Amino acid sequence: MTxxxxxxxxxxxxxxxxxxxKRSVVVLTxxxxxxxxxxxxxxxxxxxxxxxxxxxxxxVCECWYAGPMPAWYKFLSAPTKLRTIEPGxxxxxxxxxxxxxxxxTGTWGQIDGYADWLRSRVDRACVIDHHLQGDPDxxxxxxxxxxxxxxxxxxxxxxxxxxxxxxxxxxxxxxAEPLYFGIATDTGWxxxxxxxxxxxxxxxxxxxxxxxxxxxxxxxxMHDRPARLRLMARALASLEMHNDETVxxxxxxxxxxxxxxAAPGDSGGFVDIPRxxxxxxxxxxxxxILTPDKQTITKISLRSKGGDDPVxxxxxxQKLGGGGHARAAGARVxxxxxxxxxxxxxxxx
Length: 349
Ligand SMILES: [Mn+2]
Hints:
Elements: H1 12-20, E1 25-29, H2 35-52, E2 61-66, H3 73-77, E3 82-85, E4 99-103, H4 115-119, E5 125-129, E6 141-144, H5 151-162, H6 173-186, H7 197-208, H8 213-221, H9 226-237, E7 240-242, E8 247-252, H10 254-260, E9 282-290, E10 296-304, H11 313-319, E11 323-324, E12 328-334, H12 337-348
Helix pairs in contact: 1-5, 2-5, 2-6, 5-6, 6-7
The protein binds manganese (II) ion.
Manganese (II) ion binds next to loops.
């Protein structure tokens, strides 16, 4: 079901050479950035700034993020030059960089906050991604490695090339740290089925570059706000089992966020919890939201458990107009939770 045009058009050495000549670069990623999105963009920006000898406000490269931002982002991002755009906000459209790099997505729907700005600059855009689906017209230069567990694997190699180093293990710690974080989070801290020898080798090289695993784990995974736990209780209380207890739905309503004091980003990772139940093959978190233009939509996050004959949730998500990976995918559907649950059950049938 992959678009045959969603492919690699530029190997990493070509992208590194192309970037080395640029005097201004903006690095983007998908809205509501996760660890891999933040890690890949920060690492690339730091490598480009180190390579050009620029820093602070004079940096050649800066990152743009469309929020909501994860709670830990400031800890990971300081002191890299960046701008955050809150939902509904607009970036600085006067900026006209020589190059634009989009990491961890190549789908218009995930970068719609910049879409108009980007569409008139596609000629100087480059996508580095590892997702199975994307829109080829987001950039003529694309590096798509769907075998990579995290885009940070590809970006680690790109940073090595940009800095002219022999090994990823030689990367400066400030570049290695966000890369390791992206790999760790996209593999569920090395628990998911996407863990393989290549991931572990890259992660090992990044540790050799000076990354402190425990510190990163503690600051991001052991720093929840109480509101997140209260929201988790709501999600768990909403548990529904379907299809002979092989499918679990959890749902969150707008009122759940209000009453628990949680923020939209606080539900990250909830969808993984029900997979611990023996019979469960697919876990779904459905979040009903009211858009700024007063439309009710439901965001569906899907996870599949590995093992014998695992469910390809990417295919399920595609039936709903979304996509992602075989074990982790998502979609947005029009309508409330009831409508979305019915459509999801249909897609799973
Ligand atoms: Mn990723």
